Amino acid sequence: MPSFQSIFLAAFCIAFGLKLWLLLRQMRHVWQHRDSPPAAFADSIPLTEHQKAASYTLAKSRIGLISLAIEGGLLYAFTLGGGLQWLQDSLAGMISQPLLAGVGVLLGLTLISSSVELPLSFYSQFRIESRFGFNRQTPAGFFGDLIKQTLLGLAIGGPLILLVLWLMGIMGDSWWLWVWAVWMGFNLLLLTVYPTLIAPLFNKFTPLADENLKQRIEDLLARAGFQSSGVFVMDGSRRSSHGNAYFTGLGKNKRIVFYDTLLTQLTPEQIEAVLAHELGHFKRRHIVKRIGLMFFLSLLMLGLLSVLKEAGWFYNGLGVSSQNDALALALFFLTLPIFLFPLSPLMSLYSRKHEFEADAFAASLTHPGHLISALVRLYRDNAATLTPDPVYSLFYDSHPKAVERIGKLESYDTQARISQPLQA
């Protein structure tokens, strides 16, 4: 029977080999189709814009190759390379309290990984995004955000890790159920307070001032039977020219947020259609379903961890000679992604199904043509590739391919036109 180290190495090679193959497929496919947009977009996307999107995708993919090498290098270094054991030994020598030393190991792991990846993030923001006209961030703003994110992560993550390790130490064999309950409560609390306590630390949110657009949105919300705590505009233009819109919060704290860039890109009819799509996620209970799935999967994962943390072969097979709760958590969440990556198409398929359902809901409340024109404008302005590799898309894309999505919406548009004379 193969050792766990052999199994890990096989999973490591399969996962990273598959990721590399998919990324190279994506680059080759986008390059081969850069000289002409798909027929469905021939009249709406100029060739120059299509080629810009291809160049943007290729530039990000080349960065993706470097990121993949860093990701694989860090994983090997922390496990079989002895990095995690070194971190454990170093902190144990400085911190006499095992619980605090465990918190230090997990926070140190995060800090080291983030520090190694920081130069690539900086390059992506100020070379790639700037080259294609999307970056509006300053270096001072970049590092200001980084400092705030780090302090916020320490303020929230530190106590949470301490609580989890404490529960793992005192709750016996049922510790994983207690941790699961804490994890559920933490996520629900975070979703509730994010709009009012966390998001304003990074962006400015102001009530929508355009009265005509506000009235149009309120009419749409009434038709959909949806209540929120307000419609807000976020100063996304401080960092990027990319446009977006989203819902955030739970219960009475639900907010509708538009990037200020989106409001300058789209017409009122198009904005209404985009909002109707986002409403579709709530009305079709996609948010609740995803939260439920996350909680179910986290319960399974914690149950598995409860078995692995007592198994010496789990630690030894991953290059760690010590055995404690913090190391079990670190090793589990370091290695879990490579074992789960081959299942990525299932989650992506689930997400794309929700996007189609949200589009259908939008088409039932607004004219399908408005959402089509809005999507085409966003594809163009955000330099989104219209020709992703099908296999790469199968693994990574949470949204349907542009051709498929527009084709489906056009079928709704055709149905609406056919039904209008009948209704008259």
Overall morphology: globular
> What is the CA-CA span between the terminal residues?
73 Å
Question: What's the rounded overall pLDDT mean?
Answer: 91
Radius of gyration: 24 Å
Sheet with the most strands: spatial strand order: 1-2-4-3
What characterizes the major β-sheet?
4 strands, mixed
Number of helices: 16
Low-confidence stretches: none
The helix fraction, in percent, is over 70%
Per DSSP E runs of 2 or more residues, the count of β-strands stands at: 4
List keywords for this structure.
424 residues, mainly alpha, four-stranded mixed β-sheet, 16 helices, 73% helix
Would you kindly provide a written description of the structure presented here, covering whatever features stand out?
This protein is mostly helical and 424 residues long. The protein is built from 16 helices and four strands. It has helices at residues 4-32, 47-78, 83-94, 98-131, 139-170, 175-198, 211-224, 260-265, 268-283, 286-308, 312-316, 325-340, 344-365, 368-381, 390-396, 402-423, and strands spanning 205-207, 231-234, 245-248, 255-259. It has a four-stranded mixed beta sheet. β3 and β4 form a beta hairpin. α14 packs antiparallel against α16. It starts with a helix and ends with a helix.
Give the gist of this structure.
The protein is mainly α and 424 residues long. The chain has helices at 4-32, 47-78, 83-94, 98-131, 139-170, 175-198, 211-224, 260-265, 268-283, 286-308, 312-316, 325-340, 344-365, 368-381, 390-396, 402-423, and strands at residues 205-207, 231-234, 245-248, 255-259.
Topology summary:
Blueprint: H1 4-32, H2 47-78, H3 83-94, H4 98-131, H5 139-170, H6 175-198, E1 205-207, H7 211-224, E2 231-234, E3 245-248, E4 255-259, H8 260-265, H9 268-283, H10 286-308, H11 312-316, H12 325-340, H13 344-365, H14 368-381, H15 390-396, H16 402-423
Parallel strand pairs: 2-4
Antiparallel strand pairs: 1-2, 3-4
Helix pairs in contact: 1-2, 1-15, 2-4, 3-4, 4-5, 4-12, 5-6, 6-10, 7-9, 9-13, 9-14, 13-16, 14-16
